[in-house]
Amino acid sequence: MEQRLTSFAYRVGQLRRLVLLLALERIAPLGPVGKGQIPFLAELFQAGDGVSQEDLAEKLHFDKGSAARSLAKLEAAGLVARTVNPRNRRQLAITLTPQAESLRAPFLATLRELTEAMVRGFSDDEREQALGFLDRMITNVLSELGRPEKSARPDRTDRPDKADRPGSMKTTPVAAVACQPDDAGREAQ
Known about the structure:
Mean pLDDT: 80
Strand order of the largest sheet: 1-3-2
Oligomer: single chain
Shape: globular
Order of helices and strands: HHHEHHEEHHH
Helix content: 55-70%
Strand content: 5-15%
Number of helices: 8
Distance between the termini: 30 Å
C-alpha cells in the first residue's frame, strides 16, 4: 500500500479510470460512441479528418489492431467513413460523416466540461504547470519506449486567451488523453 501512495502510475491510472467513467456518463446521451471510440472521435474533431488510420493510431498511442476495431465501430455507427487513400492505396483515410459533424459541437463542449471539472479550483498557472508535468511524464515514458518525442505533446493552443474564456485555459479535451487502451493493449469498449 505504501508504494501506491507515492506511485505516479497508480494515480494516473486511477485518474484515467475516473475520467472515463465521467466521460461515458456525459457522452452516452449524445450518440453511439463507446469509451474505446472517444479518443478517435475527439482527435478527428480537433485535428481534422482525412488522416490515415495508421497515423491516427500512432498519434493516440494505440496499436493498429485496436485502432482498426475502434474505427470499425465508429464506421458501423455511421460516424466515420474509411476509404482507400488515392495517394497510397495501402492506407485507409478516415473522414467524418454528416452524422458525426452534427455531434461535433456537443461532443467537444462535453469534453471541455470534463476538463473544467478536473481542474476546478486550479489557477491558470497551476493548470499550465500540471500540463507541463504531464507532458514531461509522457516524454519520459516515450523515451523509455524508444519512441520519438514529437508525439509526446498533444497539439495544444492552451496559452491563456483572456478574450475567449474568463478565468480558464484552453486545453486539449481530457478524453483524448484519458481514454487509452486497457492494460492488455486491447481497445476498451
